[in-house]
Structures are given as structure tokens and as C-alpha cells.
Amino acid sequence: MLMNAIPILKEILQALKDLYEKGEEHVIYINKLPITPEDRELLLDVLGEGQVKITYSSKTQPAEWKETGIFGVWIGIIKNRDDKPVLETIEITYFPKLASAQKEDVQESIKYLEEKISEIETKLKEEEKNV
Description:
CATH topology of the largest domain: Ribosomal Protein S8, Chain: A, domain 1
Number of strands: 5
CATH class of the largest domain: Alpha Beta
Largest sheet: 5 strands, antiparallel
InterPro entries: HupH_C_sf, HupH_Hydgase_express_prot_C
Structural class: alpha+beta
Oligomer: single chain
Strand content: 15-25%
Domain HupH hydrogenase expression protein C-terminal: 2-118
Keywords: Coiled coil
Family: Belongs to the HupH/HyaF family.
Number of domains: 2
Distance between the termini: 80 Å
Strand order of the largest sheet: 1-5-4-3-2
CATH superfamily of the largest domain: HupH hydrogenase expression protein, C-terminal domain
Pfam families: HupH_C (PF04809)
């Protein structure tokens, strides 16, 4: 029995329009909605499959995002340590936010690269002295 597939599809359509016209992104938390197996089947059938898949390999919270056949619509699944889904989303965005680099991670990368470059420069200077 279909309960929420059509309203969810309409929400996706409006969110796509908002993304295109206003740049606004939207997230639908699927596992927080009462959807039947028939709803899920219809949603997956209408949305189809895209060509991009993003996998976040983490021991504590592995995640996966798949682009649907509708550009700008992504299905995301975040799992727990036991590989069981804890959060399922439909993200209407150009690129899933949770899959993108986080500001703290970029800051950590800056520190790492600064240290590595400094180490290499120091090593090169030492080698030049010994030549």
C-alpha cells in the first residue's frame, strides 16, 4: 500500500526547483518517515540509478551516497559499527554535504602539508650542505 511515495516525490520536485532557482539544498530523512515497502519500491523506481557512488570508509560510521537517475538527487545511507543503517536520506544538492570535506579536516590537512613541506625543505638544505 502506498502511503507517502507521492508526497515525497512532490517534495523532491519542489526541492529541485528551489536548488535550481535559489541554490537551496534540502534533506529528507527517509528512516524518520512512515514509508511502506511499496513506497520505497516506487521511490527507487522513479528516481532510478545514476552513475556516481561515493563511499566513506570508516570503522565507526561508514556511509554511502548514490546519485539517482535524477541529477541533483542523492540517496545516502549512514551505518553503525555493525553495518546496520542508522540514517537514510534523500539529499537534493549538487554534491552531498556529508560526503564533502569538513572544515576541521581541511585545517588538519593544511597543518600536515606545512609540516611535510618543511621537512622536505630542511632535508634538501642539509643535502646541499653535504655536497
